Structure prediction request, 217 residues.
Amino acid sequence: MLESELFTFLAHTADAVFVLSDQGEIEFWNKAAERLIGYPAEEVKGRTCYQVLQGTGALGTRICHDGCSVLECAAKNSDIPNFDMSVKTRSGKRIWINMSTITFENPRNGHRLLVHLARDISEQKKTEQLVHKMRGVAQQFSQLGDPVGRVSPVVELSEQEKQILRMFSEGKTPTSIARALTISSQTLRNHLHHINQKLRTHNRLEAVMHAIHRKLI
Prediction:
């Protein structure tokens, strides 16, 4: 009865949710998971997580596999940290998701379930990869021996403006930066406008690259 109530509660959550037995078989798959991964619930129930998702990490290493470490952690009642992984959708496209895990145990029958909540972070990953490439290019420029003094002079950045550029260089999104600095999205856009004016750049990526090259951040 408790498990049925749990599934009813999870059915309409905004996050994609799927629930595994302690053998790794999918027992529940909500509508958000159908939209995100593409499989209807009837196609995945009874199958294992690794069969459906084929999850891999940043280096292409398989995360989803038989004898998954998440199942081992749950069996030991260990904390399971959030993690990112690339998964294969029904259409064959791979997307990035952030996965969090909750262990649920029915006290009446001892049945253990793993509740996975997944969010699409593909756009965030694209930004991180772009920033990583951009930082590499900036470092290559700095190694060419072109003195910083030869670059056209700029107006000095404020500490908050430097902080904003550092956060963008770490791959953070405008929404997360505004939230972290407790400012509005419009205020953040105003800061970026002033940064571009001071650095004589045209967009935030160019501003970050310029700031790295000038050793401002």
About this structure: The radius of gyration is 23 Å. Confidence is low (pLDDT under 50) at residues 146-151. The CA atoms of residues 4 and 10 lie 10 Å apart.
